[in-house]
Amino acid sequence: MLIEYKAIIYTLPVIGIFVYLFSGQYKSISRYLNRRTPYTYVKRNIFIILITCTLNYIFRFPNPSINVWLLMVILISILTFSCRFLISDLLINSEKNKKVTNVAIYGAGRAGVKLSNYLSEDPNYKICFFLDDADHLWKRQINGKNILPPSKIDNFKVDIDQILIAIPSLSKSVLREKIDFLKNKGLRVLSVPSIKDLTTGKYSISRLKNIAIEDVLGRDLIPISKEIIGTDIRDSVVLITGAGGSIGSELCRQVLRLSPKKLLLLERNESSLYEIDQELKNKFNTSVEISSILGCATDKSLLDKLFLLNKIKIVFHAAAYKHVPLVEINPLQGIFNNVFSTKLLCEACLNFRVRKFIFVSTDKAVRPTNVMGASKRLSELIVQGYANKLKNLGSDEKKYTKFSMVRFGNVLGSSGSVMPLFKKQISEGGPITLTHPDIIRYFMSISEAVELVLQASTLTKDGGEIFLLDMGDPIKIKDLAKLMIELAGLKIKDNNNPNGDIEIVCTGLRKGEKLYEELLINGDSISTENPLIFIANDYYLENEFLFSKLDILEDSIKKQDLENSLIVLSDLVKEWKNVNIIDN
Q: What residue numbers bound the domain in which 130 lies?
């Protein structure tokens, strides 16, 4: 038999080597073989057999039956990819560190399988089992690993170093529940990117990350179709003030995705403006014209020129001084910047027939106890004043501009938030400092806040509305600090655990600081089309009184008359009491 087919025995290896060299098979890296590799070998081996069979026919060598040829394809394929997989395993085993990370994957869906396939090629990880809430998956396997109910995690004998949550579609509330459950068992928890990050291509499934505080706090918003928001913004010239700030820069990103005709960025901080300008131009594949203007929203000449030359149709006013302690020390600068930037922008919108003006406000404007909050409340009253101006004109042609405001709570990660401070203190080994153990705040992420601004901008009808979000239950700042410590994989240092990593120290309330914040002044609100967005039914001032007092306030600030400026401010914001101001 062998003698009869010796021509095949001699030619087959030669042809095989030639085909493998020609096709580049030798170039594949053995340690990165995947499930498609065997199919590649089979196809090449069939090609080799066909060439050998053709040569045998041409040179009239004996040709075996078709069954023998098929058997040879199978045997050669088994031999080639068995050798290759053996080499792959040897290479991977030779690379293993002494310490292998034992992981369990929470989520036996598509994301969990993809993550499992990725980690199986990494010698530093060992997948021990899967966890899933779906009972029909229990006792089944993925890649030879059991799928267990979360309640059985304590029964597994191997010590788990990490739990990897591979369910990118989880809502924040459910994710928070799972984290609490796993943290109580002393396990370190990581997650894969969200559906949004995966679909936009920002991250791949293989990018494991520590769970950020933004992932679990705030509300899951009910989205308005981008078509609805986009119809308003698409092909319009949009101005964003405070474009380099946390809210302003996120507004820039989200507005840019809605294809405006032109995007104007107004910012007084040079480095912040440069950063957002470079990010928008380098990271966004867009043909939208982006114009970055270094200047201040209190500069009337600059504003008039911008509105005249660019035919602006939509304005998002996010520029403000918002650090409570700094504005308490520098009240005149805070009042002038926050109040008169708003007044000048409203006036420009009215004069140049801007279609929409949206003012970004804060919950600190509700019954304010500090100058910053009072200045934001006065800014709200100014926006309402301009909306009332239009209503009283009686001409439909002059009712062109829709003035509205969006009021929300603390924004995680913004420059005025405690989160950057807590992150810095944790990275430095602590302690975390907070002003009072019982202080509470509403929270949302920066992206949530901007989504609210954009969604609310589509809901304005008559003008003068103050939109606010049902933000759920407030959270204690102390609980926020604890959660950030735990998400960083560290332990709290206190009397119960003196050997912990990070201590929490209370320093006392600052001047003008409240224990809790509110979103409504009179506790009354009106629902909208979006069940998470409401309209505050707050008081407003008569325009004659408002604008006459504003003239006096502006004159007092120009004269650096602090006492009279604060008296006028308290006349305008009647619920603010001038008791926490530092005297000159």
A: 101-211
